[in-house]
Amino acid sequence: MERTFLMIKPDGVQRNLVGEIIQRLETKGFTLVGLKLMSVSRELAEQHYAVHKDKGFFAGLIEFITSGPVVAMVWEGEGIIASARKIIGATNPLSAEPGTIRGDFGVTVGRNLIHGSDGSDTAKEEIKLWFKDEELVSWQPTINPWIYE
Ligand code: ABT
Ligand code: MG
């Protein structure tokens, strides 16, 4: 079973999309193993987006991510890293397919609603950056035999 880090950004929280977004992942069949509403310190935001530190949009991105509460989550499931990226949709919401979160609810790249880890190394790093071990719950939903053969 694979795990990924997903974070509903401040725009998703402000627009009351928390329930909608969680529902899409739940009904897909994925399992929530960590969840917290939190404000993001500048330090955490800069660590999370360190790969973009030399980009022109970095300062604005840090301002945005620290501007209001986010919902940090760890989800589990087979192939979840790539699958969650598909459910989320393309980085630029105008290019994201309808049916994806960004395609259905977003308009601009700087307000694209949700983050998802982009590979197994970044998923591990991001889970460690955002969650303590004891904040994650390992459990086997009883519905799983109806989701996985
Ligand atoms: P994240 O899931 O937030 O990492 O987005 P994604 O992986 O789809 O896209 P990347 B390239 O990692 O973008 C990170 C954040 O930077 C914002 N951004 C990106 C801009 O504001 N302008 C740009 O030109 C680009 C390329 C979008 C992402 N987050 N927000 N908000
Ligand atoms: Mg990214």
Automatic annotation (TrEMBL):
The active site is at H115 (pros-phosphohistidine intermediate). It comes from the Bacteria. It comes from Coleofasciculus chthonoplastes PCC 7420. Gene3D superfamilies: Nucleoside diphosphate kinase-like domain (3.30.70.141). GO terms for biological process: CTP biosynthetic process; GTP biosynthetic process; UTP biosynthetic process. ATP binds at K9, F57, R85, T91, R102, N112. SMART domains: NDK. Major role in the synthesis of nucleoside triphosphates other than ATP. The ATP gamma phosphate is transferred to the NDP beta phosphate via a ping-pong mechanism, using a phosphorylated active-site intermediate. InterPro entries: NDK-like_dom, NDK-like_dom_sf, Nucleoside_diP_kinase. It catalyses: dZDP + ATP = dZTP + ADP; a ribonucleoside 5'-diphosphate + ATP = a ribonucleoside 5'-triphosphate + ADP; a 2'-deoxyribonucleoside 5'-diphosphate + ATP = a 2'-deoxyribonucleoside 5'-triphosphate + ADP. Belongs to the NDK family. Homotetramer. This is Nucleoside diphosphate kinase. Signal peptide: none annotated. Keywords: ATP-binding, Cytoplasm, Kinase, Magnesium, Metal-binding, Nucleotide metabolism, Nucleotide-binding, Phosphoprotein, Transferase. GO terms for cellular component: cytoplasm. Residues 1-138 form the Nucleoside diphosphate kinase-like domain. PROSITE patterns: NDPK_LIKE. GO terms for molecular function: ATP binding; metal ion binding; nucleoside diphosphate kinase activity. It is found in: Cytoplasm. SUPFAM superfamilies: Nucleoside diphosphate kinase, NDK.
